[in-house]
Every structure is written in C-alpha cells, then in structure tokens.
Design brief:
Two copies of one chain form a homodimer. By secondary structure, chain A is of the alpha/beta class. Chain A folds into two domains: 19-104 and 259-461, Aminopeptidase, CATH 3.40.630.10; 108-253, Glucose Oxidase, domain 1. Helix content of chain A is 35%, strand content 23%. In chain A, the strands form two sheets. The first copy, chain A, has an eight-stranded mixed beta sheet, with helices on both faces. The first copy, chain A, is elongated and about 70 Å long. Mean pLDDT of chain A is 94; it is low at 1-19. The A-B interface holds A 57-58, 61-65, 117-120, 123, 204-208, 230-232, 234-235, 238-239, 242, 291-292, 428-429, 432-434, 436-438 and B 57-58, 61-65, 72, 117-120, 123, 204-208, 230-232, 234-235, 238-239, 242, 291-292, 428-429, 432-434, 436-438.
C-alpha cells in the first residue's frame, strides 16, 4: 500500500512528522476539543470576556513603576498575594519566596542638551545600573559620534579621550542591537571616553528613549551609560559628519544603593491526581521606572492569572498542578527566575512543563516550543489545532530560549513554551514611557488568555507526563 | 447620435468631464511629456538625486527651533535669503517682507505629576499662547476627567470650580479633534476650572505630547492650556471612573511678550514673456519650539526651492514667473500669509496659480486642486497624467482649502493646488519632538520635488493663463 501513497501525502507526512506521533496520544488530545471550545466560548463570549483587560488596567494603574527595589513593586506583589489568598481566589496555595541580594538602582534627575553648534534639549533615560555623572551634576564635553563598535575601535584614543561617545548604531534586531546598550559604555571607556550616549534600542521612535539594564564588566572603568533617541542620534551623526564641533551637556544623578530583597509570588491550582507535578504558567511582575509595564510584562503575567480563573469557573481541574509564578527582578537579568531555579534544580522531575509570556499580548499567533521533538512536538501541534477559533494555531520550534524567565528550566531540559505574539510594535514601546495600557487591546488579551488556558489545562491533564527530551530524540 | 451612447460612456463622460476640455489645451500639455520626463529623470537619476534631503537636513539641523519670535527663525530666514542671493543662486530677485505685530510666546519650564492616588510624572507641552500657571509655580488641584465638551457641560459648576479639567476626547480626525486644543481651556474656565490638560491631537503616541496654537476668546477667563499624552489622558480617565480622587501638580511658566516683527521670504525665478504673472510655490519656514519642523513644514518649503533649482539646471525657464514664498508665523494662525495677501489683494490678477505643500512629503500621491472645474480641472488632470513614473497621478478636487497658507488666495478665487501626500503617519509626529529628519525619506522627497517642478513649470509656461473660475463654471 505504501508504494501507492501519492507524493503529496508523503510530503504531508514529512511536514507534520505525524508518522512519529503516538496515535493514542493524538486521539487523547483531540478528545479535548469540547473542553477547548468551552474555554474559548467562555472567554470570547461569556462572563470572562474583557476580564483580563479590566484586571490588568486596575493593576498597572494602581502600581505603575514596579522597578526592583521600589516599594511600589513590593506593594504590587502584596496586593496580588492578597488577591490570591482572598475569599474569591480560586488558588489553593499562594506564597511569596524571598529573592535576596538584588541590585537596587534609582534614577535621579537627568537632562541633556546639545549646546554646540546649536542648542537643543534631548530626551534621555539613563540605563539601569549606570553610574551618575560626576557629583550628579552636568558633564559638558565634546562628542564623537560613531555608528558601530568597529568605527569606535578604528579611532585613536587621543580622538576619544575626555569626550562623550555617541552611538548611532541603528536598529537591526533587539537581540543584535542590544549589545550597544550592554557594552557601549565599557567599550567607549577603554578609549578614555567620559560618558556614552547610546541610541535607543528600537525600530521606531517619536522622540522616545528606551531604558534597560546595562552592566560594567569586572575591571572596566565605569562611565555613565544613557539612552538618547533615534532622532537625536541621527541628528548628531549628521552634524558630526559636517566636521563641526559638537558639545553636549548631560546630567544624570542615578544611584546604586545597598542590595535589597524582593519576592517571587507563587500560586498553585492543585492537580487532582498528581498534585506534586507542576505546569508553570508565568510572567514577570517587575518593570522599569517608566510607563506602566503594561506590555512588559504585566499583560503576560495577567493572562496566566486569568487563565486559571477561567479554568476554575468552568468547573475544570486538571490532574497536575498549574502553578502561576510572577517573577521578580526580570529586568535586572532574570534574577528572580534564576533564584527560583536554583532552589528547585534538584527537583526538576516535578516540573512537567514551563510556560511564559514576555513578548507582548498584542495578537497571539500560537506557541514557540522547545523540548522533545517526537511526541512533545505532536502534543503542542495537536493542541494548537484546537485553537482555530482564536487564530492561534501557529507553531515554531527552537533549540534556544522560548521566553526570558523560564530559560533556566528549558536549558536544563524541562520542555517549555512561550506565547508567540505578533510583536510588530512591541519594540516601539519596550522600556519606554509609552508602555502603558493604551498599547493593550481587550480582544487580543482575551485570545491570549484562551490560548494560555487551553494549552496549560491540557498539558496539566494528560494521562502521561509531557515527554521530556532525551539525547536520542532531541534535535 | 447621443441617444445611441451607452450608459457606460455617459458615466465616463460625466466622471472625467472630458467633453468639456479644450482639445488644443490638452494637446499643449501632452507636448510637455518630454520636458516632464527630463525633469523626472534629472531628479530620480541625475545630479539632483538626493539633493532635497541633503539641503533639508543641513537647514533643519542648523536651525531647529524656528518658532515665531525666536532669533533662530530670523537667522534661518537670513540664511536662506543669503543662499537665494548668493552667487550660485538661480533666483533673479529675492527679498524679505516684514510681517509686523506677531505674537511672541515662549515656553518656560514645565512639568506635571499625578500625585494622587499614585505618583507618576507626565510628559506635557503647553499650547502656544497659553498663560502660565500662577507665578510660573506648580498648581496643585483635584482633577475632573471628561471625554467631550458635552460631558463637561453636563457637570455642575460646583463639580468643576477650582479644579483642573482633563480632556480624554480621543482622536477622530485632526480637523475635528483640534477644537479641544483651541477651546478646551475656555470651555473649562466657564465652569470655574483653573487649568485644562488636553489629550494631544494625534492618532498614535509613544508618550508624545503635541503642542499647537490656542487662543482665548474675547472676555474669556484665561487658564493654562497644556497638552498631555494620549496614554496619560486614558490612564486618568480610567482612574477617574473608579471614583478615586485625582490630584495633579502642573507647572508651566510660558510667557507672552510684546509683539514682534518677522518676515516672509520671497524669491522670483522670472518668467520670459509675462514676468509680472506669478505662479506661487510655497511652504512655511516657522515651526514650533520642539523637534526640527522637518516635516512641518521645512520639507514642504524645501521641495519648492529645489524644484526651481532643477528647472534651472535643465536650462528651462517658463513664460511666467515662479515665485517661491516661505511664509512666516504659519503656526500662529497663517499670519505671514494673511499679511502678504492683504498687501496683494488689490493685484490678484497677477497671481495665476498658488501652490503649497504643508501636509508632509512622505509619499506624494498627486494634487489636491481648487478652482475652475472645466479647463482648469482638465489641465491639472493632464499634468498628473505625465507623472506616472513617480506614481503621483492622483487627483482630488475640493471647494475648500487645499493648503494652509494659500487659503486666503484660493478663497479669493485664485486657483491653487496642495501636494497630496499619504499622510498616514503625519499626525503621529505633528507638533511633537519627533518631527525631525528621521521621518523624512530621500526618495519620497525627490518624488515630491519632481511633482512640484513639473506642475509649476507647466502651469507657468502655458500659452494662456491658467483659467480662473467664474460664477458660471465653478461648482
């Protein structure tokens, strides 16, 4: 019979790898169609419609600047702890876990002006972790404007020493361009620069500076590292190319204080049969000290909370525990997540699957998955096939990270998924004052909740644990 | 024969009105095809390629904040006067004309904070013409947040008196929504409000406030009128609807000084046969005290300058004079244009046609025309048919204004055209710090120059004057 299979069929089989899927497992997931439809119906047309937007707005309007080290962040964690532990909570067990020794950096007054050859104020944001200008006072110096590390390194130290280095590196992609934020100051300091003004990492700007974390490497000379806008970086480069002398005044009195303790917030919706087996559904609660962090990442966090509420409201309870985790100190380098992983790394068997949304909830497309590529991949694809009603059926695999905070787990072999969003405008707003509720859409949030609820419920409810990759089956 | 004309043909005739076009006139314009192609070739592929972008960047980088009353504006006018009168200028006669008695308003320090129920800094821009907060110091008061004038008027004076009125009116279109900028303060003052914070007039925001002119009507109680961002307006409205008390601190020490004199800059490229007959090709030179006014309206102004340079570089000279006019004080209410019109209104016969670009030069589509709808419309459509190579063949007619500064002329019966741009993002940047060279594209500018050069050259060179509308033929 096989010889008679048409080429078309053969291609389809190769494409879906369905020949490798366990037919019983596939059928088991198909049996969840009525449950998936019930969940979607409840969110799109039932009492849960719009609930995520409403709760998200209430949260971010009340706790806007949730930067690590701030009272607002701790208050926001306590607020959600109270909600989770309150009468109307659907969670069985909620607790905070201390995350000690976190960096505590605060922004001070900051301003910058181009003062030669013409006068113009420039919108700036110091990068998290940056030192202040000397005594927190204006630093006035000539500027050199480069478009790359290579161009900087081609200069002689005498051309850079005592000056401000301005980077106008442009935007390729976040992952490529962000190196200028991380390393721009240190690379400039090597040539004797006294401050680095770095073009914001983003593809589109309305005079919008983007903050974000930076660090100094061991032994580096520390100089201030400050975001300027795309517009100003380009303007300074144009003037620089005319040969005119550029003088800039920049002031930033940010401070690094003693390390502090923050908290991850953990809430379990207990499984019926294997309560010690856990499916993690997560997002991070901290943001920067600009905007509201509506998109990064209160939205990603909130869809996980609402997903469990919806599952509960329908009288559903899976065999395994769904664990909401709200990570702290993500923006300082995934520090809450790293701490939690370290406390759990000897018990990874209980972590069946890890999920996070940290790339926006604008228009959910499906899932990015990492893990076993035989039955694991089959399960994810089959779950996605149940999500046609919300147009979230797209699948992509990666051998790398699917989402920031769960990277430690997936690197250690726990399969995981990130919400695959159309992030067309995500980096317009990322780490800017513009990351506010205005960027959120109630319908998109509802669809993200539906995707999250269906996926987490099914994975937590399967007869067998979600397969973990073994050396033999992992690509 | 007419009875045998099909309905389809009849519709086509009505649509194009081609039965009314003078065949000799149409043929005359068709004979310009080689000239149009030469102009386009020179700009798209010749020595003039990229010239407009280069000159525009040089201009706006050197003179960024050209607000009426500023030395920068007067310096920028003198700089262009010098260019026009210099050795390499192609213009025959260039002069400044004084425009007296113009408002001189300056922005001072300004800042705003939400201080109850949570703390957040808000990006603001006082509107041009607004008074300061008392003594230029922070004004701290409770706020009322409305979404429309109707909602405001539905409130009792006791609910508004002594408070700050915040408008979260949303964006419908510039022309509709801008009334909140014009009248928001006065309407709020009628109920005893002490300041008005008005959502910026724009469809998209990254925490970007938009300034713009406002005025107080005779007899109005004057209160400060200040732009806030879309994000903050929406945030304040959400909090207001929860019933929580909102307290805002707002400081603005803008000042209105004694009236000043500025200048329109006028430069003639003399016609060969009818030098006293004029085709005006214009844009405004002033902008606000934010951004660079690259798009509003240095770009619109610069395409006119470069268009004449290109015409000259090809050895072309039309029968009538092409007059570049760079209007001053447009942002204060078309005041430079109004003054010029008043000096010329008894000699309107010499103005054959008026053109302006003041809606951006992003992606020129064609022309918006007002004037005679028989042979005048035929001419414009026929000229546009020569512009297929730059995709600028679209035509629209209006009985209203085709562009800001030439409105007085077109209202008085002089036919005119505005550059029809795809202004999809024009109001993203309009009157914000983001109106900088970054929004400009060299190729789009080149195409705008080509459109401008072909249209102005042909209209200035026709055998007969461009037809003026008469009561009989005007729709």
């Amino acid at each position: 019979m096989k010889i008679q299979i048409s080429l078309l069929f053969a291609i389809l089989f190769v494409h879906t790898k369905s020949q490798e899927c366990d037919p019983a497992l596939i059928q088991e997931i198909r049996n969840y169609r009525p449950v998936a439809e019930l969940i979607i119906e409840e969110i799109l047309h039932g009492a849960s419609k719009g609930l995520c937007y409403e709760k998200l707005a209430e949260f971010v309007d009340s706790y806007q600047l949730r930067i690590t080290g701030s009272q607002v962040l701790e208050d926001s964690i306590d607020y959600l702890l109270e909600q989770y532990q309150g009468e109307r909570s659907v969670m069985d067990n909620t607790w905070k876990e201390s995350v000690p020794n976190l960096p505590h950096w605060t922004r001070g007054e900051e301003e910058a002006f181009l003062i030669e050859p013409v006068h113009k104020s420039m919108s700036i944001l110091a990068f998290g972790g940056s030192i202040a200008t000397p005594l927190g006072e204006p630093l006035v110096a000539e500027a050199v404007v480069v478009t790359s590390f290579d161009e900087l390194r081609s200069l002689d130290a005498s051309q850079v020493s005592g000056k401000i280095v301005v980077y106008n590196q442009g935007y390729v992609s976040y992952s490529q361009s962000v190196n200028y934020r991380y390393k721009g100051a240190s690379e400039a300091a090597k040539l004797g620069a006294i401050a680095a003004l770095i073009e914001s990492i983003g593809p589109f700007s309305i005079n919008s500076p983007h903050t974000g974390v930076m660090t100094y490497a061991e032994g580096d000379t520390k100089i201030p590292a400050i975001a300027i806008t795309q517009e100003d970086a380009e303007m300074l480069r144009r003037i620089y190319l005319t040969g005119e002398r550029i003088v800039i005044s920049v002031k930033s009195n940010s401070q690094t204080h003693q390390p502090i303790t923050s908290h991850n917030l953990i809430a379990d919706y207990n499984g019926t049969r294997y309560p010690d087996k856990v499916v993690v559904v997560s997002g991070h609660i901290d943001n920067w000290d600009v905007g509201q962090g509506a998109m990064d990442d209160a939205g990603g966090m909130m869809i996980g909370l609402i997903a469990v509420e919806v599952i509960n409201s329908l009288g559903l309870r899976p065999k395994r525990t769904i664990r909401n985790i709200l990570w702290t100190a993500e923006e300082q380098g995934l520090l809450g997540a790293e701490h939690y992983f370290n406390t759990q790394k000897n018990e990874l068997d209980k972590f069946v699957f890890v999920m996070e949304s940290d790339s926006g909830t604008f228009d959910p497309q499906g899932l990015t998955y990492t893990g076993d590529r035989r039955n694991g991949e089959c399960i994810i694809k089959e779950i996605l096939s149940l999500l046609g009603a919300i147009n979230a059926t797209r699948y992509q695999w990666t051998s790398g990270s699917v989402s920031t905070d769960i990277t430690h787990f997936t690197d250690a072999g726990v399969p995981g998924a990130g919400l695959w969003d159309t992030d067309g405008q995500y980096f317009y707003f990322h780490h800017t004052e513009g990351d506010m509720m205005t960027v959120e859409d109630p319908n998109a949030l509802d669809r993200a909740v539906a995707l999250w609820a269906v996926a987490s419920y099914i994975i937590a409810d399967l007869t067998d644990d979600f397969p973990k990759p073994s050396p033999r089956t992992t690509n």
